[in-house]
Amino acid sequence: MIGWACAAAWADWPSSAAFQYEYSESVTGRAGEYEGYSDHTGGTGTYRLKRTGDAVSVSARYHWYYSSSEGKHESGDEDRATAVDPTTRRYVHGPIDLDDEALARVPATDLATWLWIPPETEVGATVPILDMTCTLTDRAGVPQTGSVRSPALLVTCEGEDERHDDYGDFGLRYVDRYWYEPSTGLFVAELYEEHDDGSLDGRAGRFDVRTTVTLVSADYVEVPPPPSVGKACLGCTAGTLGFGMLMSMGLVVGFGGLVWLARRSTALPDRLTGTTFGDVSITAVADGLALAGLDTTACSQHFQPFLEDFVQRSIEARDPVWIATSGDKLVGLAFWDETARIGTVLCPDAKVALHLVKRFGQRGAGVEFFAEQRHQGPLGPQFNVHETWSVLARTVDAEQPYDTNTVRRYRPDDRAAVVALLQREWGDASFASWLDVQIARGDPAYVAVVDGAVVGFALAAVVGTQGRFQLALVDKDHRDRGLGGELVRARLTALFRLGVERVIAEVATWNVASLHVLREHGFTDVGELLVQSTSRTRARRNVIRR
User: Fold this and answer.
1) pLDDT in tens, 381-404
2) Which of 9, 265, 496, 539 could form a disulfide with 118 if both were Cys (CB 3.0 to 4.6 A apart)?
3) Which domain, by its residues, includes 367?
């Protein structure tokens, strides 16, 4: 019956399909021998499917990386090609597209692909996926992971099994969920959860496994980009942007089932001792009001008024946030900008800061982040510094005259022109969602218009009586004409009218033109930010500070 359904669906199946994805698998120790242990495997890759006669050719290319709380790090690349029989969904030959020792011991022709299912499959029908027998449980299930939120076909695989591997000898319970696009039956997302109870070398222990596979892009379903939130200073080049927009287990999906790429997270101890603040707890937060009731004065030298704003913006962008607390004091804040692949760590204590940075470890080797200090370890600096940014400030005590014939408030009909301006400057990234978030928050926004065309854009943020210059950008063909200064004065005027008493900005030290414009308008240097990294080499990226 499954074969007939596949054959019927195959007639209308597209001649080709492709998608890019991200993989994330976290192993978190819960008790006994695994108390405090964690590892993370992650990866990214591309799949291409094409009808070739009586088969579907499958091309898979991906990169994976692994790290553990014991200090182990691995990475690798795979480039695989295989084929699937469309009428049975079974692989025609091996090796299959997944790099997994357990599956490699099973004849390829006994394994069913996970890449698509017959779209007309009814609720309650069985669906083979790899070496598992699963069930279609919902024809309108909303994926619980990834950015696709449209109804999809939900296939569930669950049961009990055993593992006897490097982790030890364990009994396990698992639930594996796959979502598929309804009209084509092609893959959309996967969420795997496993609970293990057993022993390692005779010593009892428990741990959990959580795996997600999510689309980054696909040609058969719309994949909304995660909202990106960024902030920067003055305008002109990538160096004026920051906090936000620059800013061996293979793949185990269902034990004995789908073994994917890897990306392992260091889910580190939640409680630290021996810090300058005494005992400290580190917590992941998902509430924009997570800082309510906390004394935040010890956390940051320059950004204390904006800490809650940073948390709220990160959560709106669905980016992870962690806080470190000691009693009722906030002593550390870390947040990650997934779009820009850069983090921020605000914390004066070296030990706490190190553990906050390790929360970024699941994002791969060579993590970069902003910090106000270069913390020292027993053998010297803990991280390498790749770039320095100046933090500048001035009082806001009067309106500043600016050319209202050239600079005006942003209007909704400016959206396309501003997005195009941002994309011309920073390449092919999508800034539409990022812009929408800023405007929806009510941030004062201005455009510079020359001969009817938008050639400049600038933002500022307001928190009570404190202001902060965000991104400012002038088209490269219209620089050195005073437009940057006009945008500075327009924002200063807006902040004064909103009751702001002080404004800050951050600029990369190599961006001499932007620094000159700000200093010319009364800004003075009050500190610095360091772009630091766990790697010795610098990743090439555009930087927009959140």
Assistant:
1) 778 888 899 999 999 999 999 999
2) 9
3) 266-381
